[in-house]
Amino acid sequence: VSIRTPPLHPRLIDRFLIAIERGGIAPVICVNKVDDEIDDAEKRAIAEILAPYEQLGVPVILGSAVTGLGMDALRAAVAGRTAVFVGHSGSGKTTLLRMAVGLLDPTAGTATVFDHPIGSREARRALSWLSDTPTFYDDLSLWEHLEFVGRVHGSDHWEGRADELLARLHLDARRDDIPTTFSRGLRQKAAIALALVRPLELLLVDEPFVGLDQPRKETLLDLLAQVAAEGATVLVATHELSVVNQAERLLALRDGELVHESIQYPGQHTSQPAADRDREQSDQDAPRPFLGK
């Protein structure tokens, strides 16, 4: 919401919070345009409007896109969210991810990863990349790969993390084997372990379920949820409905263009924009009041 243009409107906030509470998502109120000059009377009025939400435990962030006020708090509030890219083959999903990783140079435009240019040392340090076509060193065992990645990224706890990942992915018996000799499914599981053994703030995942049987797909879904719960942002390009259902944002591409974006309620997938879905649900059942007793 904004302080002005349009003015701060508590009924609008209430309607959003009703939908959010019904969907089981933790809400955050971001109040923008606080760089506008406001007198003491307006400040008191704004504080009175926001006080009931703060008393209910809803975080309130005062922000300004002009001065940067509140941007750090907003980044912290949205950390640990999962978004999914969908689209037909050739729509640009892999190209977009490969540019974000720094493997491809954009022909136009710019992008940043946590304020750092894509491909820079700082951006590459922050993100981990799980490709649909993983590559490995010819002369390193799986365990040596894990040690190399963990140590390169300065992890003091890589061994415990590596043991946990090998156990959950059923790779314990293959830790001393060379991954280049693995089957497609085993290579994909090894790539998952390598992507997650290191510290990360952003996880980029391209078609991660190729070659995995159903139990390992479920393990990967659990691992992605764990990464998000630990505070990282997860961005997945996939055709798998199972991961789409677990994401909080759905983005669809066509011919390199973003053609759809919506907020997902956990476990509820829809191709409609969020606003249309909310209107239909409101017609079907009366929402529980967020600001009730």
Layout: helices, strands, pairs:
Layout: H1 10-23, E1 29-31, H2 40-55, E2 60-62, H3 71-78, E3 82-86, H4 93-101, E4 112-113, E5 116-117, H5 121-126, E6 127-130, H6 142-152, H7 158-168, H8 184-196, E7 202-206, H9 214-229, E8 233-237, H10 241-244, E9 249-254, E10 257-263, H11 274-284
Parallel strand pairs: 1-2, 3-8, 3-9, 6-7, 7-8
Antiparallel strand pairs: 4-5, 9-10
Strand content: 5-15%
- The succession of helices and strands, N to C, reads HEHEHEHEEHEHHHEHEHEEH
Termini separation comes to: 24 Å
Give me the secondary-structure category.
alpha/beta
What is the helix tally?
11
Fraction of residues in H or I helices: 40-55%
Shape: elongated
Looking at how many chains there are and whether they match, the oligomeric state comes to single chain
Return the average pLDDT rounded to an integer.
82
Largest sheet: 6 strands, mixed
Number of strands: 10
Please state the CA-atom Rg, rounded to the nearest Å.
22 Å
Low-confidence stretches: 267-293
| Spatial order of strands in the largest sheet | 6-7-8-3-9-10
